[in-house]
Amino acid sequence: MQIVCVALDVPLSTLFDYRVDKGIAIAMGQRVIVSFGRRQMVGMVMECVATTGIPAERIKPVKQVLHDSAPLSTELLELLRFCSDYYRYPIGQTVLSALPARLRSDRPIVSKQILSYRLSVSGIALNLDTFPKRKVVQHRILAKLAGQPCNLAQLKVLSATVGKQLKELMSEGWVESSPLTLPLTLGLSDVTSDHSAEPAKNVGQVAGYPACGRSEQVEKHIFNNAHTLTGEQQQAVDAIISTQGYACFLLHGITGSGKTEVYVHLMHHVLQHGGQVLLLVPEINLTPQLENYFRNRFPEVALISLHSGLSEGERLHSWQQAQAGVAQIVLGTRLSVFAELPRLALIIVDEEHDGSFKQQDGLRYSARDVAIFRANQRGVPIVLGSATPSLESYHNAQGGRYRMLRLTGRALAEAHLPAVRCININQTVMHYGISENLLREIGHRIARKEQSLLFINRRGYAPVLMCTGCGWLSGCKHCAGKMVLHLSDKRLRCHHCGYQLHVPHTCPSCGNADLHPVGSGTQRVESVLQERFPEARILRVDRDSTRNKHAWQAMRERIHANEVDILVGTQMLAKGHDFPALTLVGVLNPDSALYSGDFRAAEKLFAQLVQVSGRAGRADKPGEVIIQTAFPDHPLFRALQTHDFVGWAASQLAERQMAGFPPFMYQAMLRAEGKLETEVYAFLNRARTAAVALRHAVDILGVVPASLPRRADHIRAQLLIQSTKRKELQKFLRAWQPLLDTFPTQKLRWSLDIDPLEF
Ligand code: ADP
Ligand code: ZN
Ligand code: ZN
């Protein structure tokens, strides 16, 4: 009898044994259907073994082996086991949550076959010079296919309507298709198993794929608009491509230093050798623009994107293309770190400091950290790129665990870093959050037909409504937070739980009619600007104005077409967008981060301000950044003014070391929430007692309220465990978490967050 250990999507930390009847072939990484309790579930075969502790008469059979998708590689299974162990999350839920949703259901999968298109005999005979000019897309397709056969992903760069046009060309009999056959769809396991046993190899080279057959042809066209690299860029590229096996590089390059160009050159190198590249980007950055950018740079290359915005079908299809090795570049957000990539030869994490690489529920993984594990497992290099590296990565690079590569100059000689200046808000006239000086500067920009951007980290009109009679504040009745005034629809809204109310006419507490908005959000700033510059075209970009999926896209086009004079927005505006006419950035209210209880607040603010400053003056026009603050001499602003990340990071690291914070400390946070305060605290105190009793070499802090102690009528509290040694913390967690699992918790939810970013 054969036994398989199956991972199931249930909140238990074990695998489940099932028997396999004679004559059924089964292998690790295959999906199976089994019965669990009274239910039927899809599971993943994690191991095949000869015996089990379960008595023969009680062990249930595997009902069905699903052959509708290729098995997972042992390498990916190992990665998922590591994640389950490291993040203390049930193995079954880890494995199944990493897969596209379609693979978790028992509905049979009808895979779209990946087709290769080529010209038919009559297609070859066509004279393109006499082909009707108005059929632009068809013309382009024919011209491209005349060069070489292509799959749909490769043709998609030509136009959004490629699918329809292709059908027409096929019905004319000019184009024909056949299933794409690549060597990889066959012996996948040969390639992916046991990389550690192989001798070190140069970047890009993949066992079994010596320059991958087609690459001779691909090589010639692969790469568009290559710049001649600057000396620093070239050094970075050389250092990375000459490594043998695993190495982690921190590419610390100021904004505009041409990190993307370094990525492109590295990708080119890897693709030439038949490897696959995984490029991870922050959630907000994965826009159609970025995808198109890489498609245009690599017109002959199959590129897919993987992110949560795809439909289930699209996501499965992309995932399978990666798994089959057809996709050469995988561009994705954090979830794509779990994509199956048989020829993976390079991982790049762009904006590695970005918080969106950390998942905040379920499997609370850091995609950056998992990517590093993965590169190590696979024996390939990984590049972490940023203008403001996380202090964790920076510390590792300084200590020699990562290799530091620096780009200290802007790639375009004429593009200068913006001048940064502070305005003391206590020494100037303020107009609801905007200083007179800043308004004047905006006026100059409008006169010069240049764009300005005002950055404010608060949406809505005002963060709170106040009664001048009795001091009543618009608190949320379900949360510990305040309700934000949204004037456009005359509502108070809680940004924590979504509860909303009509704006009251009189004070709910004393009946006074004098209610005042306190502070400013994006909407109020917008209205101040409208009043001051009635002729100006003002665009507000925040989550409220971009709720519609295509709105942000349309806005970006308006900005590029220079149809906007002033932009007002939240951090959505700060990231990676290149607005050539923008020459002034105003930062309205950064001060709260300076006295925040979160020890990472200053680090985040610095990164944000560097990023938002990087929007100014990227093209030929010099840029200026104006920061409104009550603390113009604060070291953070000083460092921004001198563009001194290095000095700033050194002072931050010194502070962190003194205070015993990461990266000098490894942390795990136990959080609990429930309707009853007593139950929440009883659970955490019990967990704490159990932790103390284990007598491990870790610090066990006190049980304290969460930073938002009540949300949506739930009381929230937490317990932090830390150690200066990651290993010790892990050892402790392995002993502690199984105990937590045994506590009765019907009336509350709890979670463990390893390496938490939020407090
Ligand atoms: P980063 O990602 O570091 O902020 P980018 O990669 O966006 O910088 O590069 C900034 C600008 O410089 C882009 O317009 C890019 O095309 C240009 N650029 C990059 N490298 C070079 C180079 N070697 N020569 C000329 N222009 C370059
Ligand atoms: Zn009142
Ligand atoms: Zn609320």
Short description:
About 30% of the residues lie in helices and about 25% in strands. It is α/β, with parallel strands linked by helices and about 750 residues long.
Strand content: 15-25%
Which stretches of 5+ consecutive residues score pLDDT under 50? 182-201, 204-221
**Rough outline:** globular
The biggest beta sheet is recorded as: 7 strands, parallel
Question: What is the class of the largest domain in the CATH system?
Answer: Alpha Beta
How many separate domains? 5
CATH superfamily of the largest domain: P-loop containing nucleotide triphosphate hydrolases
Strand order of the largest sheet: 11-12-10-13-14-9-15
How far apart the termini lie comes to 51 Å
Number of strands: 32
- Named at the architecture level, the CATH assignment of the largest domain is 3-Layer(aba) Sandwich
Output mean pLDDT: 89
Structure description:
With 759 residues, the chain is α/β, with parallel strands linked by helices. It folds into 5 domains: 2-98, PriA, 3(prime) DNA-binding domain (GIY-YIG endonuclease), CATH 3.40.1440; 115-179, no CATH class; 188-407, P-loop containing nucleotide triphosphate hydrolases (Rossmann fold), CATH 3.40.50.300; 419-462 and 519-646, Rossmann fold, CATH 3.40.50.300; 666-754, Alpha-Beta Plaits. Helices cover 31% and strands 23% of the residues. The chain is built from 22 helices and 32 strands. The strands form 8 sheets. A 7-stranded parallel β-sheet has the order 11-12-10-13-14-9-15, sandwiched between helices. A 6-stranded parallel β-sheet has the order 16-28-27-19-26-25, sandwiched between helices. Helix 13 (367-378) links the parallel strand 13 (344-350) and strand 14 (381-386). Helix 1 packs across helix 2, helix 9 (231-241) packs parallel to helix 10 (259-272) and helix 21 packs across helix 22. The protein is globular and about 80 Å long. It starts with a strand and ends in a 5-residue tail after the last strand. Mean pLDDT is 89; it is low at 182-201 and 204-221. The structure holds adenosine-5'-diphosphate and zinc ion (2 copies).
